[in-house]
Amino acid sequence: MPNFCAAPNCTRKSTQSDLAFFRFPRDPERCRIWVENCRRADLEAKTSDQLNKHYRLCAKHFDPAMVCKTSPYRTVLKDTAIPTIFDLTSHLKNPHTRHRKRIKELTDEDIRRMKERRLASSTDQLSSGKDDGADDGTGNNDDEPQLSTEEKEFREYLRSLFEVVVMLGKQGVPLVADKIPEGELKSNNLQALLDYRMNAGDEALTKRFEATAVNTEYLSAAQQNQLLDVCENTVREEMLMEVRESRFFSLVTGDLVEFASEKHLPLFLRYVNQQNVLREEFLDFVPFDGDEPVLVERLEAQLTDRWGLSMEDCRGQAHKATGTSTTKMKAVAVLLMEKYPLALHMPCSHMALNIHLANSLPFPNVQVVMETMRKIGAFFRTPLTQEELEKAISIHYQKNEEKGTTLKQACGSGWTEQHNVFDLLVDMLPPLLLCLDVIRDNDDGKFVGSVTSDAYSIAETLADFEVIVTIVILKNVLTFTRAFGRNLQGETLDVFFAANSLTAVLHSLNEVNDNIDVYHEFWFEEAVSVATVMDIPVKIPRLFLRKQRAADMGEIQAEPYFKEYVTVAVIRGVMQEVEDMFCETNLKALKCLSLVPAVMGQMKFNTTEENYADVYRNDLPNPDTLPAELHCWRIKWKHRGKEVRLPTTIHETLQLPDVKFFPNVNSFLKVLSALPVLKLEENKSDTASERLQAYFDSMPAKQWNKSLAVLNVNTHVKHDLDVMVDKYCRLYVEDDPEGEAKLDEATEEDATK
């Protein structure tokens, strides 16, 4: 059963943290002092025996000098230890905790008595320190337990191991070397680095492995996995402590990743830390098998049971899904919102809205186009293929050099991920196919076989009239959402106006739907024109024709076929997706961005946040005073001095020193900032999702490792090797000498195999 900390405003428990927990002392006088310092009025009536049996305080509430480690797996307090570090104010910002661990209001007599006791305690400690210094020149406490020589050596050995493993993870070096013949020694990068450290004079490792046979691994696969698990969990716990302190967060998932033939979902959390900076961190991979309810259960268990978070504090969710996983993740989002209505399903700021909308359409032809676009983006990532593409653009547009130059500038790195990608793709189709044909012919032998094979595969897909029609239809339909999507991922003012322009976007899409015959006629002519330039015949898909003959249906022409199965399907699918992603609650949340002073100024300080605040009413510390506070907030900025610049973003606003005097506004902005649709701050050079993708791109798929990926992506997270050593000793070594013997036996067994 886990231990819970009895301190007010402390939510730590032993299953979520590596901190030690200490019982209240049995000595009545010391126990009374602990209770007084805790300021828990409900504990004053309890006896010292009751408190000792049922209540604990975690190590965070004691001066570090009062905490001693007697061994790698045991922590104790000094006899004179008294808890002095408490958070007695954060409950004012969190009304949900007011009914628990109620903090006692101190009277003048209480304050006087506490001051007297602290003064006496300080005097005693000072005199005690002088006496200790006189008796012992080192100033050490002789009663403080010391580690044995064996324990110290074992800890130094573990520390060296963890240092090597962390270095491998942060540098993106796989544990196992690639392409090792089976007949040779199964060496790996970890073994090589351990050899290097021993040759460089690492005594702890040398003592450990000097008797090991030269043809055996130093560490078994099980031991390596234990080390990796401890490193990964320690780094993750650092991030989770920040999330718990911030309380509100949003859940973001990435595209599927495959480890050992099993699909996993990358899991990110977005939150505002104690420095009021928006963070998005990668924490783990979640298995993707099972149906939607199973996946929802798994996500909940990960967040609540394993990480100690509350789904009631989840304020947003975004799923960067592609291909067949899109439908499943949409169902997961719906199920999560049914259970947690404030976990608003929104687009992810990392992905252009038009690409998100196209990915969400469950039609095979659209999914083929999106998969081909991803292949094109990866194919032209190398300078050689990019150079060939630019040559093809120059050849095709030699009579229109201005357009050719524009296209060459536009098709740089990441062009397949932009808001206007479908406009670019339609103009690029003829030179793109020409470029792919040149590469797959490979007359000058510049390209390796895998490149020519990829060129052939992409070219065959683009040479299909159904694909061309789908691209042209997507381009024209998504023209109506392009500006909306660009604003949605722009500055705070742009997002606010985007939320207010959704009605116009839906009106335009409805107008197209009502006049679909006219629009389709123009769009189909455009598709035929592009196909003619590319020498591609206009025809109905072969699969449909075969089904038509089998059903003995009458002959159908190309134009009505593509109208029914492509144009109508795409326009209605996009309309439905926009309505789902920007429901009334989502729009209310985005319209609350008028709290940002620059937005207020643009609206002439005539804003009505009160009308939308009911969405987050329960998240505010004093919701009843919100109207009066908002009035003061508007007056403050409306009558500012001429030299005062209006903050333009949530981040700027939260950094203001006087925002703390507006507790409701402060809480409101923190919740809004965590919404996944809002872009991260410009000072973030690269996002966690980009770092994760860079890790996967840096090595073959068979060398991917989940734990090393967590370490590599989170190199900025501080880590303490001693904490890792303590955790390893606690989890895998019950008794140090016995543990060493067991590890030695395991090593010897490996050597004899």
Automatic annotation (TrEMBL):
Keywords: DNA-binding, Metal-binding, Zinc, Zinc-finger
Superkingdom per UniProt: Eukaryota
Zinc-finger recorded as keyword: yes
Chain spans, region Disordered: 112-150
Coiled-coil regions, chain positions: none
GO molecular function, one term: zinc ion binding
Keyword Transmembrane included in the entry's annotation: no
InterPro entries: IFN-induced_PKR_regulator (IPR052958), THAP_Znf (IPR006612)
Alphabetized Pfam families for the sequence: THAP
Every THAP-type domain range: 1-86
Protein name stated in the entry: THAP domain containing 12b
UniProt organism field: Acanthochromis polyacanthus (spiny chromis)
